Amino acid sequence: MGGKKVCIVGSGNWGSAIAKIAGANAARLSSFESRVDMWVLEEEVGGRRLTDIINTEHENVKYLPGHKLPPNVVAEPDLLKACAGADVLLFVVPHQFIGSVCDQLRGHVKKEAVGVSLIKGVDEGPDGLRLISDIIHEKLGIEMTVLMGANIASEVADEKFCETTIGCKNMKYAEMLKELMQTPNFRVSVVPEADTVEICGALKNVVAVGAGFCDGLGYGDNTKAAVIRLGLMEMIAFAKLFCKGPVTPSTFLES
After folding, report:
1. How far out from the chain centre does Cα 84 lie?
2. Of 204, 224, 240, 244, which one is the catalytic site residue?
């Protein structure tokens, strides 16, 4: 006890892959509480509750089968219990549910807690496009950071090498969050342009789809290279219009 308490809000394949990393790091580092709560939307799998399966077999057999979770990761079906007293909240739910999740959490999280959004995408509504981290901040009143990268959950769980980027406007959290998330196979860099990092996390998938179309249509590598280059230029142009803070070219070279 005495370290920072970590809670993972979400337990799909990405949430469970992140639980492997955060759980293992929390267990070995004195700066974090060993126990990591993971909120699991309760459901039955083979006649058993998913939380019971995770807590006894240490495996999310539905969303990340074949991968053992650290035994200090505890599945909790009650959202408020899972998040109670948490110092670090890792948000890993589908973006369409983040509003309702935050509405349930309002008034039940520590004001000095820091949130990390691992949710790729943006919210679209009457007021236009909004960053997911902004929605969480407005509803819960906590400082927000983001983690984005070319990270396929199954490959992260397989411990295949990849990179990711944390966007952290308040850099006092940078070292702590990097310590929580980095492993020899999951390389973390931290930059202050959180809005740019987050919008890149959404837009890069559009460019990736375009590159995939080139493969599917047999257009060849030259065309695909052009699509990727033009896509990157459009990402930069969009970020300069959309993001509230500075947008520097070097951020686009992060993962």
Report:
1. 20
2. 204
